[in-house]
Write a structure and sequence with these properties.
The complex is a heterotetramer, with two copies of chain A and two copies of chain B. In chain A, 29% of the residues lie in helices and 38% in strands. By secondary structure, chain A is an alpha+beta fold. In chain A, strand 8 (119-125) and strand 9 (130-132) form a beta hairpin. The longest helix of chain A is centred in the middle third of the chain and has 18 residues, at 51-68. Chain B has two helices and five strands. A five-stranded mixed beta sheet of chain B has the order 2-1-5-3-4, covered by helices on one side. In chain B, strand 3 and strand 4 (58-60) form a beta hairpin. Chain B is globular. Classes of the chains: A alpha+beta, B alpha+beta. The A-C interface holds A 12, 15, 19-36, 85-86, 97, 99, 102-103, 106-107, 110 and C 12, 19, 21-36, 85-86, 97, 99, 102-103, 106-107, 110.
């Protein structure tokens, strides 16, 4: 249900898997690579995952969502590798009889995935500098390293 | 009490170590001790308080005793989404 | 931006219109025709709209969402006509730099559209009875009328 | 003080009236009076307290004075989505 993918994500196919005549609502979320972060122009991203644990922890999050909210089904895929501006990094889709549960579960999954799943993001800036997001330390070493490619 | 464990590195730790995986012979009794040892040896910038640790592909307490053959991953602050 | 459509809604095209390299988040909602309502088996739906006022009121809702939440763009289309089980009745998509605003605006638009836009829904039940939703009165007349087709 | 207005019907009102649109000559001074008149004539089940009214394609107060040539829509409880 929760997958890490090194291929582009295909939302249409994922959403087709969620079709269910019991469902009145399908809430979905797409995380896109945007062109700036904290005011700095971004030109590309690398995502990297510890795949076995990422999928295990991701599935735990989906199981929690099923327990907390009256939903029917759910899918989540996170992309890894080199991404360009505008690329789809994460897709979450949730079906439910009613919209409240669909929205709340979708939001819960995105929030928890960002906080808990072992996936890392390296930003490449316009000037050539790079940074692993959330990994800065007091010294400058971790904040800015030469671009890797 | 020396044992051999496998350490896999991701993201900033992989870059600072310069490789993705290595076997390490260590006298460390816990994952916490092992990270301190490796941090001193390789100059990792992140303090252990900012990391989590996984043993054999699941999250584990820092104080869990290390066993010969364990596979460890030190997990930098995540940033998915 | 808010449209009433008598043709099937095409989410892929709508979402393409929302592409924006400034956007980090795209929240979307689909309302589907489900196979029961209040415990009664439903076999089809008719949606009917007072189109000029529906589009005017819909646009007001989207303008409110832009004012209340830090969003970049938004689209909403509501289908009218004869719909079958599983058909897409409403699509809402919202882009924002950050996910909080995208989710909140998307939810706001769906809630307000359901409450304020002059669109009506007639349910056709398995037994042949029909009902205009929310239009029941104390007498039986409005609750159950012969099917119209 | 008779005037002629156009009334458009939707949903349950259209079915109960049996048509989608008609011209009505009325002495009603307000939309509220006109609905009461039409309800008595056609047996509409919904009370005006459950409706809204639109005049010339925008929502209007029930007590707004009717003008010759106005187009009116009585809006049953909505159910989009």
């Amino acid at each position: 249900m929760f997958r890490i993918s090194s291929e582009p994500i295909d939302p249409a196919t994922l959403q087709r898997e969620l079709r269910d005549v019991r469902a009145g609502a399908c809430a979905s979320f797409e995380g896109w690579v945007r062109n700036r972060n904290d005011g700095q122009p971004v030109r590309a991203l690398d995502y990297e995952a510890y795949v076995p644990l990422a999928e295990k922890e991701g599935d735990r999050i989906l199981a929690e969502a099923r327990e907390k909210f009256a939903i029917l089904d759910v899918r989540c895929v996170h992309r890894i590798g080199a991404l360009s501006l505008g690329d789809l990094a994460i897709w979450v889709g949730v079906t439910a009889e009613h919209r409240g549960a669909a929205f709340e579960a979708c939001r819960y999954i995105v929030d928890e995935a960002k906080a808990r799943v072992p996936i890392w993001k390296k930003e490449h800036y316009a000037g050539g500098a790079t940074a692993w997001i959330n990994c800065a330390t007091r010294g400058p070493g971790a904040q800015s390293t030469p671009p890797t490619g | 009490m020396s044992k051999t464990v496998e350490v896999q590195y991701f993201a900033i730790l992989r870059e600072q170590r310069g490789l993705a995986k290595e076997k390490v012979s260590t006298a460390a009794a816990t994952a916490a001790q092992l990270y301190d040892e490796l941090r001193a040896r390789h100059g990792f910038t992140l303090e252990s308080s900012r990391l989590r640790v996984a043993v054999n592909d699941d999250f584990a307490p820092w104080q869990a005793p290390l066993r010969d053959g364990d596979r460890l991953v030190f997990i930098p602050p995540v940033a998915g989404g």
